[in-house]
Amino acid sequence: MPKTTSTYKSRKQATPQIDTSLGHLPPQSIEVEKRVLGALMIDVDAFTIVSELLHPETFYDPKHQKIFHAIQQLNIKELPVDFISVIEQLKQEGTHDEVGAPSYIIELTDSVASSANIEYHARVLAQKFVARQLISYASTIEGKAFDESSDIDALMQEAEGKLFELSQKNMRQDYTQIQPVVLQAKELLLKASQNDGGMTGVPTGYYKLDEITSGWQASDLVIIAGRPAMGKTSFALSLARNISVDYGEPIAFFSLEMNNVQLVNRLISNVCEISGTKILSGKLSDEEWKRFDNRIPKLLNAPIYVDDTPGLSVFELRTKARRLVREKGVKVIMIDYLQLMSASGMNFNSRQEEVSMISRSLKGLAKELDIPVLALSQLSRDVEKRAGAGNGTDSKIPQLSDLRESGAIEQDADMVLFVHRPEYYRIFNDENGNDLRGMAQIIIAKHRKGSTGNVLLNFRGEFTRFANPDEASNYIPPADGGGEFRTTSFQDPFVQSGDVSPF
User: Fold this and answer.
1) DSSP code at position 342
2) 155: which residues sit within 8 A by CB, 6+ positions away?
3) pLDDT block averages, 10 residues each, the chain of length 503
4) Which listed residue (88, 93, 211, 257) is catalytic?
5) What is the pTM of this model?
6) Is 257 one of the annotated active-site residues of the chain?
């Protein structure tokens, strides 16, 4: 009940009459807003406690939005904050009369005795603000859903984008004392010391690459980039095969460029060492049919989960990835490729801004799920335009500046790998005279947790496979075209083998 009749009348005039039987008031708490603003003006340290939680729009009352903005500006200028300085700041901003200063400002400071509970009250306001945003988004989507002319697919994308944007804006992680982090690092170090190979992450299947990286590391965003025809998709599929078929680790492969059948056909070509042309035509030799029958069970039982959703949005990816990690224990996520993804439902001034948002989201996803995320990326045409002296070996090597559409990709990535085939540019020898025919270079151009380097691999384009340099192929095509199958000296003829694709 109001204390006096005059107070009741003044509040009645200030607040519009609302028939609550016809709807709901938006989530808000005017009294808590007053307490927070009052506390901010009586305690010089209070703003640092709530600065990450509160913004002017967090407040429901427009007057309170203007008052908080004035307090915020004073803190930015590192000026004292009290009721006098706030009144002066409101005068400078031209909102003095709108908020009823100075009487209302004095009333706010008189209404609180301390700032003891300001963090709790600030969290209450932040939650109510998020609730209002959810209601606003839901109302907008509901209105469009009733419009029969709306494109439902586009509307779904917009709804997903808005929810993702809201969740990103409100993700906050508190600081932690260093002790538990040190203990976690110590545990990882002890685990690595017990591993003869020094492997701390998911093995790639390529020993020179594993020497530099110690495997794909948890929470890392790894960018695998290359120009068209370098074979980055084939490299990704060879990695998927090594990780899942040879080491039994569950992976998820999101293919935005090929459908599931095309993707699996290339995996069959890789595992069974049968050319893609023959798989498409179905004209296999007896030996190839035998090899197919012998090896296909390995692929059938591999924990590989494929998704060919076209135009996959970052929100969809996040939702699916969470479920795959929770239900299937997925250890690595692979995306082919980054530039085909979208951030539907969000507004951007340019494609570069959208790609930057996608890149940041992929890094956030890797951290959230604590698994490596491998994303393929296109390179710009600058590689083709560069000319060099001599045989041009150096001029065609990709550079970090060649990453297409956004410098944010380089910034967000923990590791950047380039797939480079000098032979494609008719470069057959390196600077030391080594033969580069039939070879592919995996160039580690950025490595946040270790050294960079250059790993040389064999490739067999017809099988979409990369292989370690000292591995012999199990298949020898003789002159008569009949084909011969042989077993190498390795324990598992499939381990760490694979060839790059010319596609």
Assistant:
1) B
2) 141, 144, 145
3) 38 42 77 92 86 88 93 86 90 89 88 86 91 87 86 78 71 64 74 68 86 88 85 88 89 87 84 81 83 84 86 80 89 88 71 81 88 87 60 67 72 87 78 76 87 84 79 43 32 31 33
4) 257
5) 0.65
6) yes
